[in-house]
Amino acid sequence: MEKPRMFTFAGRVIKNLFQKPATTQYPFEPVEYPERMRGHIRIEIENCITCGLCMRSCPSQAIRVDRKAGTWTIERFDCVQCGFCVATCPKKCLFMEKGYTEPDILKKSETFTKPKEEKKEAPVTDSGKPVMDAEKCVYCTLCAKKCPQEAIHVERKEKIWKLDEEKCVECGICAGACPKKAIELKG
What we know:
This protein has two domains: 40-113, Alpha-Beta Plaits (2-Layer Sandwich), CATH 3.30.70; 129-186, Alpha-Beta Plaits (2-Layer Sandwich). It is 18% helix and 20% strand. It is built from five helices and nine strands. The strands form four sheets. It has a three-stranded antiparallel sheet. The longest helix is centred in the first third of the chain and has 14 residues, at 5-18. The chain is elongated and about 95 Å long. One of its GO terms (molecular function) is 4 iron, 4 sulfur cluster binding.
């Protein structure tokens, strides 16, 4: 004869009353994140040059950059924490931070605004507009190919190197790509 289901259920209840809980007591005990956890994206907006490389590299299109307004926006719900934006950022102002974003009932975005820069004497920095040294340049066109804004135009035969200062975001990728170190960033 088969055992009635009521006794099976009562046995499980009594067993569970005296066992240790299977879950942690969050928020009373701190969360221990797994070593390979991706986390979420964090930005240091004061170091951002709003070049838009992170936006163009994002496979889920969760990031929007408005260069004129100086804003960086992320749709946390759309972000898949792949880290492409972190790897692409030329100024290394994006980071993968351990932990989850706060849960919410609404799908919302976070917008960060660059602080307004005060006019000061030009500090020595690793940013500025690229300047080409004609004696070192071999007109290989690598700088033009690597420029994310297509701000550099090189004509190899005529030995012409032009910079569209309106398009240039001072990311420095062209200087890093130059095999002859013919490009310097001048602030």
